[in-house]
Amino acid sequence: MFFDFNSKKPALFLAPMADVTNPAFRHVAHICGADFTYTEMIHSDGFNHDDPYAKNRGFSIGGVPYGIQIVGNDAESIAKTAAGLEGLFSPAAKVIDINMGCPSPPITKTGCGAALMAQDFGTANHPANIVRRVCETAELPVTAKIRIYKDHEKTLRLAKSLEDAGAAAVTVHGRTRGQMYSGNADWKIIAEIKKELSVPVILNGDIVDEKSLQTAMDLTNCDGYMIGRAAIGNPNLFRELKFYLETGEPEIVSVPDEFEIRGADLNQYFENLKRYNLLPHVNVRAHAQWFTKGLPYSREMRLKINDFHKEIKIRHLSDDELSAERESLTVEILNVFDEYAEKCRREFVF
């Protein structure tokens, strides 16, 4: 098994997210308490045609165990990619996860992600047959991340077929493809899947704080809980949830302390980006703005950050030039965080 699900406490997973879960961010999330993290999705067609994306973004800082997520539309292509990636990234890479749930139109229009769930049972590229083919090729355990259908029985059938095909675990996002990220995740169907399967089931969707985590735990008794959008710009959420799981009480943190924690996490993130030559591959300005969400003065901070280096024409820069430009940008952004952290200390006095 790629992860010890026998712990007395449920596992907390960082969801694979495009343009978010690069090695630098995954490492910060791990420091904050995420038990397991996943790469951004790596496209099988790109990898099999020597796209350098995987080599640049698929590694793990410090050899921390993690999962590799593959997106594709063809069982043979995905299996070939799985074999190649485990050769590149073992032993830190512990599992191959197949993306069968991404609802983004640029992904689904090519037959990938959630579009795979439209394949008829028994066809070569039905999710179960993809899992079966990858299990035949890869040495690492294979898992799948799916969404739900409107038809609960069909959803249960799909989940069971993945287990029968050899999936070591199944992650379920409790929304349909058509919902995208709107409405509420349906945890009741995930509870049914948990009762049906003998392999671990990981719940994804709408875990945003201690209350939602506890409600999901009580309702589903899942083996793990995956956090996506709520962790963007806020890896500290894993610290808060870990504190809750250990004590049974939410951690009380003052507004100024929360501000400084967020700034410290952003600083660590930037250090990782610089140290591992990831700056050319990350939109530093956008990521910094995510870290302001929910903080005092967040709008003022975002406006300042947005004005930095606006005149720079990214497409005209080499990777070395882009790294230098973005390293300078990180210094200015951190200065903004320091400025407003001090302002917060002065104005939020108890």
From TrEMBL:
EC number in record: 1.3.1.-
EC class name: oxidoreductase
Q: Which CDD domains match?
A: DUS_like_FMN (cd02801)
> Which InterPro entries would you find in this protein's record?
Aldolase_TIM, DUS-like_FMN-bd, DUS_fam, tRNA_hU_synthase_CS
State if Ribosomal protein is listed as a keyword. Answer: no
Q: Which residues form the DUS-like FMN-binding domain?
A: 14-314
Q: Name one GO molecular function term.
A: oxidoreductase activity
Alphabetically sorted, this entry's keywords are: Flavoprotein, FMN, Oxidoreductase, tRNA processing
Mind telling me which Gene3D superfamilies this protein's record contains?
Answer: Aldolase class I
Entry cofactors:
FMN
One Pfam family it belongs to: Dus
Q: Which PANTHER family match?
A: DUS-LIKE FMN-BINDING DOMAIN-CONTAINING PROTEIN, TRNA-DIHYDROURIDINE SYNTHASE
Q: What is this protein called?
A: tRNA-dihydrouridine synthase B
Q: Tell me the organism.
A: Methanimicrococcus hacksteinii
